[in-house]
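testing teh design pipeline on a random one, pls ignore if ur not involved
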């Protein structure tokens, strides 16, 4: 048995693990990076980058279909499925290549390939023949798509979000199971690329929206284009030749039986914990098997073990994984002298059309009875109508008394940009009045944000001057 002794061992070479490695190494420690799967990070290989490539192709196809409404007429639309997916893979591989270049810069002696498992709180077995003793350990093993019980028997007819980008051609039909951000993004993209798509959700949840009014607007906007089957139960899914026969039951009790080429499962991701043998780590685990940890130091209990990224149960978004990796690696490097790390305001975006975004506090995280709501509809908002993207609703939440901006939920055009402005304002702890002092150009979608802020300010103060309202009287506001 080969033995290694290091100061810090990082299990997992994804976004969180690579960041933790660099943060711990900055303290001058001997750090070992352990990876049992392919290098390349979830984001680059199967997540945010390839999905946006597929969405970009879908947007191009949609723009051609929508052009006649502007008086612009092109030729016959033709979608070359193999070419679409070949570009997705080529560009995906390019992004993965950048990650691999970074990994290759790590000295070979500081990298170890193989599955790691705990044999004690400070010892790991990696593969069949290597034992690693580490004074501190960072768990950053990521997550994998969750497969609902009762669907595994479909074999190759079952697809996860990790598999889509390996397709050689577009299927003629897909049933998407799951109405979260991944299911919505992939479902709408495939629909726009000519695939017959139905999207199934057990509840009326849509991309995690908690505000009922925003959720209703999202259902209206997306449902006008996409076959949404919300509050629908999957009764059975059986192989039918090289396809799947899907039986579903809607909320009113009616059933439908339809054939799809494949089932695309997008019901969330599960932490990669199997095989780590955490029972030998001495850590206290929650009901999902995830170690209890401090969200500001990423320390597990009072141990010298830290956790970071998707495996912690945090939202599977890149910036969250990187932040956690930086905090975990920094504290592993400075242990036992820990330092709380920067935790940013919550920010989540679904790249549908219209886009969906959640910022800061919303739903049950708002103070009971201690907040007001301001809103604006994009239906008649000037710039949105110019682009023919005038659908959606923005709702802002402000704290009574302090008048501080707390958060927002929205569905609307170019929400990714509005969401960043709002996240910055929220993290800066700005009041609604301070936000209204910021410049707003004309005509831009952000003018809709100003209208919502003014509505919120009026509810927080019971008064907004006539002069302040005057800006909304200009054309196209």
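output:
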């Amino acid at each position: 048995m080969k033995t290694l002794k290091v100061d810090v061992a990082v299990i997992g070479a994804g976004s969180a693990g690579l960041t933790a490695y660099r943060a711990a190494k900055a303290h001058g420690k001997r750090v070992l990076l352990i990876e049992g799967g392919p290098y390349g990070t979830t984001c680059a290989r199967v997540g945010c980058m390839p999905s946006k490539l597929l969405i970009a192709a879908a947007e191009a196809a949609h723009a051609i279909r929508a052009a006649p409404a502007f008086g612009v007429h092109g030729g016959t639309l033709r979608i070359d499925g193999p070419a679409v997916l070949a570009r997705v893979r080529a560009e995906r591989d390019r992004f993965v290549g950048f990650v691999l270049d970074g990994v290759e810069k790590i000295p070979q002696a500081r990298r170890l390939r193989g599955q790691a498992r705990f044999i004690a709180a400070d010892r790991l077995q990696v593969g069949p023949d290597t034992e690693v003793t580490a004074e501190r350990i960072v768990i950053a093993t990521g997550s994998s798509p969750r497969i609902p019980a009762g669907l595994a028997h479909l074999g190759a007819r079952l697809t996860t979000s990790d598999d889509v980008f390996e397709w050689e051609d577009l299927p003629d039909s897909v049933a998407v199971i799951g109405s979260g951000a991944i299911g919505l993004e992939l479902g709408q993209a495939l629909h726009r690329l000519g695939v017959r798509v139905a999207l199934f959700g057990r509840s009326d949840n849509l991309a995690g929206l908690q505000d009922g009014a925003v959720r209703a607007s999202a259902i209206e906007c997306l449902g006008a284009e996409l076959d949404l089957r919300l509050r629908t139960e999957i009764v059975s899914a059986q192989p039918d030749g090289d396809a799947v026969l899907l039986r579903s039951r809607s909320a009113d009790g009616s059933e439908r039986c339809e054939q799809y080429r494949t089932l695309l499962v997008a019901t969330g991701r599960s932490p990669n914990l199997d095989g780590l043998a955490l029972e030998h780590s001495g850590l206290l685990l929650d009901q999902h098997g995830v170690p209890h940890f401090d969200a500001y130091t990423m320390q597990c209990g009072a141990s010298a073990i830290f956790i970071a990224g998707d495996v912690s149960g945090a939202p599977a978004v890149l910036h969250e994984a990187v932040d956690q990796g930086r905090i975990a690696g920094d504290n592993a490097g400075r242990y036992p002298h820990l330092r709380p790390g920067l935790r940013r305001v919550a920010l989540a975006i679904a790249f549908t059309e219209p886009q969906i975004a959640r910022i800061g506090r919303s739903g049950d995280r708002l103070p009971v009875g201690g907040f007001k709501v301001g809103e604006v509809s994009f239906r008649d908002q000037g710039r949105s109508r110019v682009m023919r993207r005038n659908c959606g609703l923005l709702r802002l939440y402000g704290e009574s008394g302090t008048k501080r901006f707390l958060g927002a939920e929205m569905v609307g055009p170019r929400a990714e940009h509005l969401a960043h402005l709002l996240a910055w304002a929220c993290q800066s702890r700005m009041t609604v009045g301070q936000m209204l002092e910021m410049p707003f150009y004309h005509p831009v979608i952000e003018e809709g944000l100003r209208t919502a802020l003014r509505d919120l300010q009026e509810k927080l103060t019971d008064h907004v001057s006539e002069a302040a309202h005057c800006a909304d009287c200009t054309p196209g506001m």
